[in-house]
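fyi for ur records
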Amino acid sequence: MDNEKKVLEAFKKAGKALSAKEAAELSGVDKKDVDKIIKKLKQADQLDSPKRCYYQIK
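which gave:
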């Protein structure tokens, strides 16, 4: 499974808004990579940011 899928799974399993650090811990992916993946997913309109520095699946 690639890192992007791992991060998406972490957001789905959490069922709530997560910070990049929390997403990294849940997915087992390095935080630097999670930051890049979150940016990519936001641009693809798959993630939403309900409050600053927290993200959730749309």
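The first strand starts at residue 47 and ends at 51. thats all i got for now
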